[in-house]
Design goal:
The complex is a heterodimer of chains A (420) and B (163). Chain A has two domains: 249 residues, 2-Layer Sandwich (Aconitase, domain 3); 146 residues, Aconitase, domain 3. Helix content of chain A is 31%, strand content 17%. In chain A, helix 2 crosses helix 3 and helix 6 packs parallel to helix 8. Chain A is globular. Chain A starts with a helix and ends in a 10-residue tail after the last helix. The model of chain A has no long low-confidence stretch (mean pLDDT 97). Chain B has a single domain, classed as Aconitase, domain 4. Chain B has a four-stranded parallel beta sheet with strand order 1-2-3-4, with helices on one face. Chain B has a three-stranded antiparallel beta sheet with strand order 5-6-7, with no helix packed on it. The longest helix of chain B is centred in the last third of the chain and has 12 residues. Chain B is globular. The chains are: A alpha/beta (420), B alpha/beta (163). Chains A and B meet through helix 2, helix 3 and helix 5 of A and helix 4, helix 5 and helix 8 of B.
């Protein structure tokens, strides 16, 4: 039977030759990811139910990232509890401060993600890891506890939607603009419960990092997962990161898709998603002068090295506008070191931006860059819900690192193509 | 039971329980801030056993199960919506917390109305206006999980049987 990549991975993990959308299955899990906010409740649940060992400590990765470096006593207690539990369980992949990073940037960077895997993470943006050809989805704390206990989890096999991305990507337009445009077209529940599969000549040309920007935001269209089949770029990316063998899966040419959506990006402009939904995207040419109090460059969507390179190119030799604050947060320690080595951090700081330690903090209004009532932030992150980055009376605009960097310099939302 | 009606679509978990409270994970602590960024009055209005009624895609956004705990802790018995975001829906089922898909009710039932819920019949009754709305029964697996008292009980039973 012809199957999609998602169906093949799920079938393989429940010991069958094929599965159909809508079926309920129990799938074996290859990798379980935990972070600081969602893990402590799972630890309590396990202990309450008398389950005292995880199914396989080698398949668990713990990355405290949301409120690190610990923002207050309560967060410090949470991480301490997880740290002690990890030690007791013999989980060696615990990314302590100094080796830390935003979980969805760190997990693939450190070679934990391989094609064909099933991955669950107690964070909604776990869909990011589909960029390497894995089935990867976000779960809550009870699911996390169940996955930690049994190494398997129930799933309804999702219908798949395929997005064929073709054309020539214009200068100044990036992966972020493509995914903001897709969400604008289909809406924040346009892919509800579905697997979003991305392919086509543009996807082939994109770097692995850019592909992660796209799969990262699958959840913003309501999807269960985003996925891109492995190719030579994937294999090269993994060559230096993992010695483990893996089995790639690819969709059959005659696989069934609930929807096939063809998108040509040749005329795509830089996109900005207006408050308070990621689907409120507008092409930059249609935007009037909107001043910004803060510009934020970072996160699991756009805090990787290529994002920082683009932002630095826009900011080199310039100054952040008076009245605007600019925060740059490299997503992982390795990215921070690389950016430092390349002189990017100097460029940011010479421009009057501040550069901080890796953390999810600002993106979710946790710490390290919260905005006040009436303030407006343009951000490379993935959500612009009411109160997402601070006060419920503030506003968040989503855009690419190029657009955010240029806007920081100008002090209002600006077109990066004019700066090139 | 009283219905707290929010006609809006895409009510997200940041509104249900803002991230500034995610340094806590106890139901009683979270309950104090339930729905805070969409309706500051909610926790003063809500009584044990009330229901929330909303539009499409309720619970979209972050995977934080804290959203379910905040609502349950505040006394909410069930959420009835046109549709639900998938992680929120899973989290509710896994917790044995009632979520009901019933299209159009948020446009019909008025905020503050007294309603009755009949799970077996699949019916919501607007008692003052004498109107009823019907929804399909819960999927079998969801009912099993509710009966077992949540996913973790099922997992523990399964693990014990394997020993």
């Amino acid at each position: 039977m012809a199957q999609t990549i998602t169906e093949k991975i799920l079938a393989r993990h429940c010991g069958r030759d094929s599965v159909k959308p809508g079926e309920l299955i129990n799938a074996k899990i290859d990798l379980v990811m935990c972070h600081d906010v969602t893990t402590t409740p799972a630890i309590d649940m396990l202990s309450k139910h008398g389950i005292d060992t995880v199914f396989d400590p080698e398949k668990v990765v713990i990355i405290p990232d949301h409120f690190v470096p610990n923002k207050d006593i309560k967060s410090a207690e949470m991480v301490r509890k997880i740290r002690l539990w990890a030690k007791e369980q013999g989980i060696s992949a615990f990314y302590e401060l100094g080796d830390h990073g935003v979980c969805h940037a760190l997990l693939p960077e450190q070679g934990h993600v391989l094609p064909g895997m099933t991955i669950v993470g107690a964070d909604s943006h776990t869909c990011t890891h589909g960029a390497l050809g894995a089935f990867s989805t976000g779960i809550g704390s009870t699911d996390l506890a169940a996955a930690l206990a049994a190494g398997e989890l129930w799933f309804k096999v999702p219908e798949s939607m395929v997005f064929n991305i073709s054309g020539d990507l214009p200068e100044g337009v990036y992966a972020k603009d493509i995914i903001l445009d897709i969400i604008r077209r289909i809406g924040v529940d346009g892919a509800l419960y579905r697997a979003m599969e991305f392919r086509g000549e543009i996807i082939d040309r994109l770097s692995i990092e850019s592909r992660m920007t796209i799969t990262n935001m699958a959840i913003e269209a309501g999807a269960k997962s985003g996925i891109i089949a492995a190719d030579d770029k994937t294999r090269d990316y993994l060559a230096t990161r993992s010695k483990r063998s893996y089995e790639e899966m690819h969709s059959d040419p005659d696989a069934h898709y609930e929807k096939i959506i063809d998108i040509n990006v040749s005329d795509l402009e830089p996109m900005v998603a207006f408050p308070h939904l990621p689907s409120n995207g507008k092409p930059i040419s249609q935007i009037e002068r909107i001043p910004v109090d803060q510009a934020y460059i970072g996160s699991c969507t756009n805090g990787r090295i290529e994002d920082l390179r683009v932002a630095a190119e826009m900011m080199k030799g310039k100054r952040v506008a008076k009245g605007t604050r600019c925060i740059v947060i490299p997503a992982t320690t390795d990215i921070w070191k690389q950016a430092n080595k390349e002189g990017l951090l100097d460029i940011f700081m010479d421009a009057g931006a501040t550069v901080s330690s890796p953390t999810c903090g600002a993106c979710l209004g946790g710490h390290m860059g919260i905005i006040a009532s009436g303030e407006r932030c343009i951000s490379t992150t993935n959500r612009n819900f009411v109160g997402r980055m601070g006060s419920p009376d503030s506003e968040v605009y989503l855009a690419s690192p190029a657009t955010v960097a240029v806007s920081a310099i100008k002090g209002y939302i600006s077109d990066p193509r004019q700066a090139l | 039971m009283k219905a707290h009606v929010y006609e809006r679509d895409h009510i997200n978990t940041d509104e249900i329980i803002p991230a500034r409270y995610l340094n806590m994970d106890q139901e009683a602590d979270l309950a104090k801030h339930a729905m805070e960024d969409i309706d500051k009055e909610f926790i003063h209005k809500v009584r044990q056993g009330d229901v929330i009624i909303a539009g499409t895609d309720f619970g979209c956004g972050s995977s934080r199960e804290h959203a379910v705990w905040a609502l349950r802790g505040a006394g909410v018995k069930a959420v009835i919506a046109d549709s639900f975001a998938r992680i929120f829906y899973r989290n509710c089922i896994n917790n044995g917390f009632l979520v009901i898909e019933c299209k159009g009710v948020s446009k019909s039932i008025r905020d503050g109305s007294e309603v009755e819920l009949d799970i077996l019949k699949g019916e919501i009754r607007d008692t003052a206006r004498g109107k009823s709305y019907h929804f399909p029964p819960l999927p079998d697996f969801a009912q099993e999980m509710l009966d077992a008292g949540g996913l973790l009980n099922m997992v523990r039973n399964k693990l014990n049987n394997q020993l």
